Amino acid sequence: MIATQVIEAGVDLDMDISYKNISKLDSEEQFIGRINRSCKRKGITYFFKIDDAKTIYKNDIRVDSEFTVEEENMREILINKNFGDYYNKILDVTKKNNKATFKDFLENIADLNYERIAKHMKLIDENKNIVQVYLARTIKDVNGNVINGKEIWQQYINLLKMRYSMDYAEWKVNMSIITSKMNYFIYQVNKANLELKEYNDKMGNIIYIEDGDKYFKKDKFNREMLQGVGGIDFI
After folding, report:
1. Phi and psi at residue 196, in whole multiples of 5°?
2. Alpha-carbon distance 171 to 227, whole Å?
3. Lower CB density within 10 Å: C or N end of the chain?
4. 146 has which bridge partners?
5. H helices within the chain, ranges in order?
6. What is the pLDDT of residues 33-81, one digit of tens each?
7. Please, which residues have CB within 8 angstroms of residue 29's CB and are 6 or more apart in sequence?
8. Coil, helix or strand for 130?
């Protein structure tokens, strides 16, 4: 099997031999967890470096060579599972590089300033070349529960309108619940390839199409109806 880093977590596989491009030590540990899971034989993992992990994990000091398995002391940490030592080193450098912002961050935590904490903890910047298309339809989840895409979208709109009329923490929890359900209907599309003349609603970077069924044939998504092949990915 050849895969991206998606295989590092949440995949129940058991293999004997693996090869991995060097990245974060956390990721290496997760990846190793896919090897010899059944403990029936001996497993082995080989690390190599073809691509620089910085192209994916931008501004993340964990992919600096001094914190990867390129360094012998990091290999020892990985082998002996001394991750406390690893994270102490990461925190020391992080504090040194962000003295002023780190102090503000601790003050925001003490003041329970959730909005500023959320902004500080943001991990992924939005790709301005990507637009999300919400195809509303009625489906069943893996447990057989019926989910109405139109109703979920309306709940999302209503919750957005309540942003400043309820406690931020409560609003954030409710929004998390709704967005998790929305993921059943959302597709990411490259703006350059999008071929869409009409839509029913738009909220932020999400385009809402009420008759989502027309983009499916025999319950299989027909990507050509939105754009050319290869430009759309299911979340």
Report:
1. -140, 115
2. 35
3. N
4. 140
5. 25-32, 72-80, 83-97, 99-110, 114-120, 149-161, 168-182
6. 888 877 788 889 999 998 888 887 877 889 999 999 999 999 999 999 9
7. 78, 81, 83
8. strand
